[in-house]
Amino acid sequence: MMASAKASLPDISKLPADALLTRAQMALLTGFSVISFKKWAREDRGPRIVYVEGRPRTTVRDFKAWIGGSSSQSAA
């Protein structure tokens, strides 16, 4: 991994619950690819996405819920 990529890795334990993460940051935190997060968003899977100025973001709260498996975002 490149040094610059590691530098942008957030410490989610120190961020407020409403802080926003990019797909690239989520990919670094999980090991999944950015492409996977894009695909899951189209399929209504993965962490909940909010759009800020047209750019997809996920709150730390929603990311932690998704990682913990407590998110109920599957299609009914």
Overall pLDDT, averaged?
86
Structural class: alpha+beta
Oligomeric organization of the protein chains: single chain
- Give the CA-based shape: globular
Total count of strands: 3
Q: For the record, give the distance between the C-alpha atoms at the N and C termini, rounded to a whole number.
A: 38 Å
Pattern of helices and strands: HEHHEEH
What count of helical segments does DSSP give?
4
* Contiguous runs where pLDDT drops below 50 for at least 5 residues: 1-5, 71-76
Q: Give, in spatial order, the strands making up the sheet with the most strands.
A: 1-3-2
Briefly summarize what is shown.
This protein has 76 residues and is α+β, with helices and mostly antiparallel strands. The protein contains four helices and three strands.
